[in-house]
Design goal:
Oligomer: heterodimer
Radius of gyration of chain A: 21 Å
Helix content of chain A: 40-55%
Number of strands of chain B: 22
Strand content of chain B: over 45%
Number of helices of chain A: 10
Helix content of chain B: under 10%
Largest sheet of chain A: 3 strands, antiparallel
Structural class of chain A: alpha+beta
Strand order of the largest sheet of chain A: 1-3-2
Shape of chain A: globular
Number of strands of chain A: 8
Largest interface: A-B, 17 and 27 residues
Amino acid sequence: MSEDLISKKDLLDLAGISYGQLYRWKRKDLIPEDWFIRKSTFTGQETFFPKVKILERINKIQMMKENLSLDELADMFSPNIADLQLEKDELIKRNIVSKTVIDYYLEIEKGGPEFNFSRILEVYVLEKLLQSGEINLDEGKMLIQVLLDNKSLIKQKSAELVITRKLGVSSCFLIINTESFHFERGTKIVAQLSLMACMEEIKSKLL
Amino acid sequence: MTRGQNLTINGSGNYPGGQYDKISIRGDGTINTDVECSAFHIFGTSEALENLKTGSVKVFGEAEVKGNMESEEMLIMGTMAVGGRAALKKMKILGTLDVGENLTGDEANIKGTISVGGDVEYETFESSGGFEIKGLLNADKINISLRFGQSFAEEIGGGMITVKKKSNSFLPFGKETGMLTAKVIEGDIVYLENTKADIVRGKKVKIGTGCQIGTVEYTNELTQDQSSTIKTKTKTNL
């Protein structure tokens, strides 16, 4: 642990919040339990936090608490977003996906216009890669197939998506919990995407 | 909640879990697996070997849940023990409650005693009984009346923390009052009586009678009763 730590006192001072607020946020699970690091100092027991993470989190909370209740905020920070449901039009309106991409996705997936989080994630990944021009429509189709086949794996683990091309033939990999991967020479990695990062992006776009 | 059948045990019985509407046990009942119901009334002895999820709980006898427990409203006149976590939104304890891990909810009213192995998190926490909390007691409003015995929490944190002693009105003999012991107490407004603590931190700190405090760190103001001792006082700037 070489992270920079900040004591609770200094944190309250720096962020301009009260004990009551800090404890309330902890109760609402806005601040994860394992960020509270208890240590004994020469003045007695003191709680420390990872400095960069906690300041960023408090900043976010303070910015967003104007428009959102604490419970809504808690939903946003927790990885559990199972009960989220959005209409197709809503997704387009909120600029998460474009109409062309969502129509293409529905054509492959053949689902209804109600999107739960895992479907939002799929269509978002597709949107991202197609819009950036890194993949073509056929590769997009392949990608969706991979995501659909492995739906259950994606939810709980940190998954990464890799698309490669060799001699004009492309393939798509879903990589779960790996540190690194290597291909033979001549294989080009077209796109690489962390699904965890995508989830965070979607969450911040939704709110 | 889904309406299922009622489960009534008069006498003694051993039943599987599942979904029920109302469960009432007047004798001695054991429920073997996970159970979900809208009401859970115990007049005798009961044991749930796994988890319990319910709307309202009333315990006049003795109840034990080996796993985790979840309920909206709870009244305990007898004794209740939960082995794992307990999420009890609104609870009133006139008897005793034992929780192995964390205890969370909105409103806690304790006139009996509770003992918790982990942290306790409530919006309002009111106690005129006794408690023993191995972890952090975290609530927005903490109101503790010390009537008898020793109350203990490793840490106490919240917005407004009030600890007052209260003499026993209906037991005139013995002038004994309760005592609260905690390592750290942190709040915006803190008022303490009969409290032993290593560190007290707050914006506005008032130390009443009968306290022994190691260090007080305050930002706005500190008042101290003459009968209490504070080893070191530091004013910090916010």
